[in-house]
Design brief:
The chain is an alpha/beta fold. The protein folds into two domains: about 160 residues, Rossmann fold (3-Layer(aba) Sandwich); about 180 residues. The chain contains six helices and 24 strands. The strands form five sheets. Strands 10, 11, 12, 13, 15, 18, 20, 21, 23 and 24 form a ten-stranded mixed sheet that branches. A six-stranded mixed sheet has the order 2-1-3-7-8-9, covered by helices on one side. Helix 2 runs parallel beside helix 3. It is globular and about 90 Å long.
Length: about 425
C-alpha cells in the first residue's frame, strides 16, 4: 500500500540511485578513456594520412579557364593529375591558383589552359601579361613553394611565346616561379583552324608531356586565341572594328581584350555583326559610343560575353513607313540580339535609344538599375526589357536577376 511515509522516501531513493550511476559512469570513463582517446587519435591520424596520401599522389595540376567554350573537353585527368576549373568571370584567379597549389607539395608540372596572345595569357577574369606581371609577383613567388625543383609550367594559349614580348614574358615568369616554362608561338588548337598542340618555345629543360592524350585534343574544334585592341580609333588594325572582323573569320571562340586602352571609341558606323563565340573584355574604363547616330552591337549568333564596358549613346532608327503605313519601331540602340546567348558582367548602358520610323513615336528608355550578374538570352517569350538600350527579335528574358543584391555589379541601364 502506498503511504505518506513511502511517498516521502521516494525523492531520497531517486537521488541515491542516480548518485550510484554517476559513480559507475565516472569509473567507466576513467578506465576506458585512454583506449577511446587512442582510437580517436588513430582515426584522426589515419584520416590525415589518407588525405596526405591522396594529395601526395598528385604530381600535376591542370588549370582550365571556363572562358573556353568547349572547356569540358579539358576536364579529363588521370590518377596523378588534379583539375582546377576557373569561372570565366572569376576575379582574383591567380590567387585562386595559388590557393589550389597550397594543397600540394613538390608538383612536377602546372598546366595553364586559356586564351593567349603575344606575351599574355587569360586566367579567369585576369589577363597576365608583361604589363600586369608586377601585380602578381608575390603570388608567383608563392608558387615556387609548392613546385618541385626543375618543375615545368606548360602554357596552352595562342601566340603567348611569339615575338620579343612573348620571349620576355616567358623569361620573367621563369624568374618569378623558378620553373621551366613552355608555350606556343602560333595558333594553339584545332588543325582544321590552322592550329596545333606544339608548344614550340621553352625556357629550361622541359620533362613534362602534354596534359591530354591525342584523342582528347582532337575533339577540341577551336583555337585558344586573344585579339588585342590597341587604339580607340574606329578603323584599322588594332581597332575594335578590326578585332570583331578578325573574330568573325573563323568559327572558334575568341577573346577581344580592351584592357590596355582607356577612353571612348566613337563609332563612325555600327560595329560588324558578331557571328561567333566571343568574349569582349574591358577594364572598366572603356566606353563604346554610337555618337547618337548608330546602333553599337548586334549579336547575330554565338555565345557572347561582354565584361567591364560602357555602351553609350547608341541609336537605332526604324525604317519609315511606305504608302501611308506606320514606320517600323527601332530596337536595341545599344545592343541587339538576333540569336545566341549574351552574358553581361559589369556592363553600363547610358543614353541608348531606339526611335521608330515616320508616324511612330520614339521608344522610351527604361530608367532602371539592375545590380546582378545577368544573363540575357534570346527566347520566344515576349518579355521586352528596355527596348531602347537592348532589343531582340524574339524578345528578351533575364536570368539570374537578384533584386536583393545591392552590390554595384552586373548590368546598369541609364
Amino acid at each position: 500500500m502506498l503511504t505518506l511515509k513511502s511517498i516521502a522516501f521516494l525523492p531520497k531513493f531517486i537521488h541515491q540511485f542516480w548518485a550510484q550511476w554517476a559513480v559507475i559512469l565516472l569509473c567507466f570513463y576513467l578506465f576506458f578513456n585512454p583506449w577511446i582517446s587512442t582510437k580517436i587519435d588513430r582515426f584522426q591520424s589515419h584520416a590525415k594520412n589518407e588525405s596526405f596520401l591522396n594529395s601526395s599522389k598528385i604530381t600535376e595540376l591542370i588549370v582550365v579557364d571556363a572562358a573556353i567554350v568547349n572547356h569540358k573537353i579539358f576536364q579529363f585527368s588521370n590518377s596523378h593529375q588534379a583539375i582546377l576549373l576557373l569561372n570565366a568571370d572569376q576575379e582574383n584567379a591567380v590567387s585562386t591558383v595559388t590557393q589550389a597549389l597550397a594543397n600540394y607539395t613538390n608538383l612536377n608540372a602546372l598546366h595553364l589552359i586559356g586564351h593567349g596572345e603575344e606575351g599574355s595569357l587569360q586566367i579567369g577574369a585576369e589577363i597576365v601579361s608583361l604589363q600586369t606581371l608586377d601585380r602578381y609577383t608575390d603570388q608567383f613567388k608563392q608558387w615556387r613553394e609548392h613546385l618541385a625543383q626543375n618543375a615545368d609550367i606548360l602554357i596552352y594559349g595562342c601566340n603567348t611565346a611569339s615575338g620579343i614580348q612573348g620571349r620576355i614574358f616567358l623569361h620573367q615568369l621563369h624568374e618569378l616561379t623558378q620553373a621551366d616554362i613552355q608555350a606556343s608561338d602560333d595558333l594553339t588548337g584545332s588543325l582544321d583552324l590552322g592550329g596545333d598542340w606544339d608548344l614550340e618555345v621553352a625556357i629550361g629543360q622541359i620533362e613534362t608531356s602534354l596534359a591530354f592524350t591525342p584523342d582528347i585534343l582532337a575533339k577540341y574544334n577551336g583555337v585558344l586565341k586573344q585579339i588585342h585592341v590597341t587604339t580607340t580609333q574606329d578603323a584599322g588594325k588594332g581597332s575594335l572594328r578590326w578585332a570583331i572582323e578578325q573574330a568573325n573569320q573563323t568559327p572558334e571562340d575568341d577573346l577581344i581584350d580592351l584592357e590596355n586602352i582607356n577612353g571612348t571609341i566613337f563609332l563612325d558606323s555600327s560595329l560588324p555583326k558578331i557571328a561567333s563565340n566571343l568574349l569582349i573584355h574591358g577594364n572598366g574604363k572603356n566606353q563604346i559610343s554610337g555618337n547618337h547616330a548608330h546602333r553599337i552591337l548586334y549579336i547575330d549568333r554565338g555565345d557572347v560575353t561582354l565584361r567591364d564596358l560602357t555602351i553609350a549613346n547608341g541609336l537605332d532608327q526604324g525604317n519609315d513607313g511606305q504608302n501611308g503605313a506606320g514606320g517600323a519601331a527601332g530596337m536595341g540602340g545599344g545592343l541587339f540580339i538576333g540569336s545566341g546567348t549574351v552574358i553581361l558582367t559589369n556592363v553600363h548602358f547610358i543614353n541608348d535609344q531606339a526611335i521608330g520610323g515616320s508616324s511612330t513615336p520614339p521608344t522610351a528608355i527604361d530608367q532602371a538599375n539592375h545590380y546582378a550578374n545577368t544573363t540575357i538570352q534570346s527566347s520566344r517569350q515576349k518579355l521586352v526589357v528596355n527596348r531602347g538600350a537592348i532589343g531582340s527579335i524574339n524578345g528578351i528574358s533575364l536570368a539570374n536577376l537578384d533584386p536583393f543584391n545591392q552590390e554595384p555589379t552586373g548590368v546598369k541601364i541609364d
